[in-house]
Amino acid sequence: MKKICLIGRSEAGKTTLTQALKGEKIHYHKTQYVNHFDVIVDTPGEYAQTKGLGSALALYTYESDVVGLLVSAIEPYCLFPPCITCMANREVIGIVTKINHPDANRERAASWLRLAGCKTIFYVDSKTYEGVPDILEHLREEGDVMPWEKTTESQ
Q: Which residues of the chain have pLDDT under 70?
């Protein structure tokens, strides 16, 4: 599985998506420091929201195969400037979260991610796991067995 670094503002859904990608029960947990899991780096929103900490995010992208920029479908603005993806020397994907919220504007969030430079965009609702398998499939490497696949040993 390719390693992904999740970046976005506070409350964009990074930690909830991390829990969904790991197949865990969803519960609120405020990320106060960078969390390294086997194949997921969950970063605090304050790193993306603070100029002094923003440059530290680059270090975590270097440890990853893929960078995921998250924008919530209910956000009133986007943190990411135009063409920011050129700052990473990794594949950068866009992830629109909270797509089923009553106030969601999926296309506005996706347009911000496209403006930032994301060519591939995923739409997810981490609480219902909608879109999560698509991200996992994107991160899949040869030989990876996904949780929904049966192996010959388990039959």
A: 27-37, 147-148, 150-155
Compute how many other C-beta atoms are within 10 angstroms of the C-beta atom of residue 19.
20
Contacts of 38 (CB under 8 A, 6+ apart): 1, 3
Task: Find the helix packing angle between 132-139 and 14-21, rounded to 10°.
Answer: 70
Q: Over the stretch 107-146, which tens digit does the pLDDT of each residue have? A: 999 999 999 999 999 999 999 999 999 999 999 998 887 7
As a whole number of angstroms, the distance between CA 104 and CA 22 comes to 25
Identity of residue 22: K
Residue 89, class by beta-carbon neighbours within 10 Å (0-12 exposed, 13-18 middle, 19+ buried)? exposed
Q: How far is Cα 89 from Cα 61, in angstroms, rounded to an integer?
A: 8
The DSSP code for 57 is H
Residue-level pLDDT at 131: 96
Per-state percent for the chain, helix, strand, coil, to nearest 5? 30, 20, 50
